[in-house]
Design brief:
- The chain is an alpha/beta fold.
- Helices cover 39% and strands 10% of the residues.
- It contains ten helices and six strands, in the order H-H-H-E-H-E-E-H-E-H-E-H-E-H-H-H.
Length: 246
């Protein structure tokens, strides 16, 4: 899909495009993941209970207290929640605090801008991979975490609503009318929750049946990752060498 978009939207010649996969995911599929007991011990969570990962929008997009509203709405499902904050901006999480065996506020080191974002730091990358691997459902807002989750075949939900009503141009709703997000949703691998009740229902369905929308998640992997064989980095190097040797 990305190759086709590069040809269609950027006027790049097909012969100038090498499809290699995503080298970043090589370690996701080749490295040993921490056991659930081992990883949950670090987070002070119960490995025998389900865990939902929430990545709330940053305040650049909305000042709505999305995460607290979701956490409160999920309380009756008897879940554990990890609220993963963004490395490049603040989110309004209200007065949410970590609670042993219930809530974790996960705050990665902040960076100044995308140029300084180093996702190759081994321990940090392994931690995020373990977090995704052991999540039972991933909830996010226009985040590539949806693709990351699909790599591990974990169900995903997009946040497509506001806590307090807003005009369309100020709300989170308009993001999901963007072409690239529509295409992600069209894979069938992520659900768009248009209100809090719908989000809770989606979480309930995924917890009851983690295989729901599995084929859609495979579509996400095919469209945005191509192959998950641990050899994308090698293919990238081979492509670079091929260009240099022309």
């Amino acid at each position: 899909m990305i190759r086709n978009e590069a040809i269609e939207c950027c006027d790049i010649e097909p012969n100038d495009i090498y499809v290699v996969g995503v080298p970043h995911y090589d370690r996701y599929v080749t490295e040993r993941r921490a056991s659930r007991a081992e990883f949950f011990k670090k987070l002070d969570l119960n490995p025998n209970k389900k865990m939902v990962l929430i990545s709330p929008p940053i305040i650049t997009y909305t000042y709505d207290p999305i995460a607290p509203a979701i956490v409160k709405a999920l309380e009756f499902l008897d879940l554990q929640v990890v609220v993963r904050l963004h490395m490049m901006g603040k989110s309004n999480i209200g007065d949410l605090q970590s609670v042993p065996s219930k809530i974790v506020i996960d705050a990665p080191d902040k960076i100044r801008d995308p140029i300084h974002a180093d996702i190759t730091v081994m321990d940090k990358d392994a931690y995020l991979a373990d977090l995704l691997y052991h999540s039972d459902v991933v909830i996010s807002h226009i985040s590539t975490l949806t693709i990351d989750a699909a790599v591990f075949n974990r169900p995903s939900i997009f946040i497509g609503f506001d806590v307090t009503p807003k005009p369309y141009h100020e709300s989170l709703r308009w993001f999901h009318d963007m072409e690239y997000l529509k295409r992600v949703c069209e894979t069938g691998g992520v659900r768009l929750a248009e209100n809090l009740n719908q989000l809770v229902e989606y979480v309930r369905e995924y917890i009851a049946n983690p295989q729901l929308d599995e084929e859609g998640r495979k579509n996400i992997v095919r469209n945005y990752c191509w192959k998950l064989d641990g050899k994308s980095g090698k293919r990238l190097v081979d492509a670079i060498l091929s260009c240099l040797n022309r």
